[in-house]
Specification:
Layout (H helix, E strand, L loop, with lengths): L2 H14 L9 E3 L6 E6 L2 E7 L12 H14 L7 H5 L2 H13 L4 E5 L2 H15 L4 E5 L4 H10 L2 E5 L4 H9 L7 E6 L11 H11 L1 E6 L14 H4 L8 E5 L9 E5 L1 H10 L1 H4 L6 H16 L2 H19 L12 E4 L3 H15 L1 E2 L2 E2 L10 E4 L7 H18 L17 H5 L3 H8 L4 H10 L11 H9 L10
Parallel strand pairs: 3-12, 5-6, 5-7, 7-8, 8-9
Antiparallel strand pairs: 1-2, 2-3, 4-10, 9-10, 11-14, 13-14
Helix pairs in contact: 2-12, 4-12, 5-6, 7-8, 14-15, 18-19
Bound molecules: pyridoxal-5'-phosphate (PLP).
Pyridoxal-5'-phosphate binds next to helix 5.
Length: 474
């Protein structure tokens, strides 16, 4: 095989499909969040970032930086090994105590990232518990899916956030088999929130364990920043709460919290915990400072919610289509991979605004979007500048707007349904309101036959609701 040719051909295919990812070269600045310098060859430009997952700007909080500096000076750069050999530092122990307390659990266990915590914990639980069946939400994150896959345990998928379907799936499983329901609180691309209480009720009824990923909620929700389960007083009902230190807490690392026996079990059997070097002590110290701060300060959370509401209101006024959801994530829908990239390029080149296009496979084909994450540090002026820039770009590209006269109460497209190919069901919802975008999405959806408008439903919708050329993706 000609290996280099193979690599290049595969990359060319990605480019032709409009799915090739380009990372912006950015330098963040302490004291100026959410601004950064964009480096493009020799050119350096200051830009405003609208898509950071350092949701509250804790990555530059003075208490976090001071704690990290102090630990770095005291303990040096690295942890010195795996936790088992030479890597357990007092900062790791303090951080695990802080996390257990945050979620009202007996114990917590640290990992090098949220991805690894999901991968290692789910793989270990599902492979080590005899005959375990994992019941997984259809929209779960790649790290959960990979962990479940790696376990080789039986996995049953229920429709996204659909408790009736969850019951249906559980009813079909032998009552004597151990079961683990895996789901998220805030789903990162659509920003919708799981019915956690109802899922816990169902888990109790069927004797299942629950595994909740709170990656997009910790630090941001609840009186102490313990996530949606904290906000809803449900932490005690979940078997495992998983989170990250990288988003709301602004540092890096992942963890699970649960009973002492469960955490000890994962500590003792999970390859992804045992055989890798521990987080640097300075990182653990920064995370402790961030969690402590957000346990007592609600200011950042309140200001973030205000900014999110302002952005949503301004988008609605101009008919810039965005998904309504109850979280801090604001998906602005372009529904076309090439157009989505063009919107982002124009925002960057002409308006010094950085927002990354979100394309397949992160979201289904036909639902490409900008994923905005307004932060407490975005000012009124930042919002004014962003909205007028987006408005101008939208007009120049001739993109569709939603009706701003009040019939937006139509039910939102269920992205979970879309994701799993049940396109005919979804088409009924908003077809008249958003028919052109919808037809475009359907035309290219894999469930309808892969490439261009091959499926009969796609052909029919595209004919009924013709729109400008979409073909540039295929
Ligand atoms: N879980 C979900 C739902 C995520 O969206 C992500 C990453 O964005 C992760 C886990 C992984 O977390 P980390 O970035 O800490 O690896």
């Amino acid at each position: 095989m000609k290996y280099e040719t193979f690599f290049r051909t595969e990359l060319d295919r990605l480019r032709a499909e409009g799915r090739y990812r380009i990372f912006a070269d950015l330098e963040r600045h302490v004291g100026a969040f959410p601004n950064a310098t964009h480096v493009n060859g020799r050119k350096r430009r200051r830009v405003t970032v609208w898509c950071s997952n350092d949701y509250l700007g804790m990555g530059q909080h003075p208490a976090v930086l001071a704690a990290m500096h102090e630990a770095l000076d005291r303990c040096g750069a690295g942890a010195g090994g795996t936790r088992n050999i030479a890597g357990t530092n007092h900062y790791h122990v303090m951080l695990e105590r802080e996390l257990a307390d945050l979620h009202g659990k007996e114990s917590a266990l640290l990992f090098t990232s949220g991805y690894v915590s999901n991968w290692a914990s789910l793989a270990t639980l599902a492979s080590r518990i005899p005959k375990c069946v994992v019941v997984s939400d259809a929209s779960n994150h790649a790290s959960m899916i990979e962990g479940i896959r790696h376990s080789r345990a039986e996995c049953r998928i229920f429709k996204h956030n659909d408790t009736a379907d969850l019951r249906r799936v559980l009813r079909e499983i032998d009552p004597d088999r151990p079961k683990l329901i895996a789901f998220e609180s805030v789903y990162s691309m659509d920003g919708d929130i799981a019915p956690i209480a109802e899922i816990c009720d169902i888990a109790d009824e069927f004797g299942a364990m629950t595994y909740l990923d709170e990656v997009h909620a910790v630090g941001l929700y609840g009186p102490r920043g313990g996530g949606i389960s904290d906000r809803e007083g449900l932490s005690h009902r979940l078997t495992v709460i998983e989170g990250t230190l990288a988003k709301g807490f602004g540092v890096v690392g992942g963890y699970i919290a649960g009973s002492a026996a469960l955490c000890d079990f994962i500590r003792s059997f999970a390859s992804g915990f045992i055989f890798t070097t521990a987080l640097p002590p300075s990182v653990a110290a920064g995370a402790v400072a961030s969690i402590r701060h957000l346990k007592t300060s609600g200011l950042e959370r309140a200001q973030q919610q205000r900014r999110v509401a302002q952005v949503r209101e301004r988008l609605s006024e101009l008919g810039l289509p965005h998904l309504e959801n109850p979280s801090h994530i604001v998906p602005v829908m372009v529904n076309d991979a090439v157009m989505c990239k063009r919107v982002c390029d124009m925002l960057l080149e002409r308006h010094d605004i950085y927002v990354q296009p979100i394309n397949y496979p992160t979201v289904p084909v036909g639902t490409e979007r900008l994923r905005l994450t307004p932060s407490p540090a975005h000012s009124d002026a930042d919002i004014d500048q962003f909205i007028s820039a987006l408005d101008a770009v939208w007009t120049e590209l001739g993109l569709d707007r939603t009706d701003t006269h009040g019939d937006d109460a139509l039910p939102a497209i269920d992205m979970g349904v879309l994701r799993h190919g049940q396109l005919a069901a979804a088409a009924g919802h908003r077809a008249l309101h958003h028919a052109p975008q919808f037809a475009a999405g359907l035309a290219r959806a894999p469930a309808l036959g892969g490439t261009a408008a091959q499926g009969p439903l796609a052909r029919l919708l595209t004919k009924l609701f013709p729109r400008r050329a979409y073909g540039s993706v295929a």
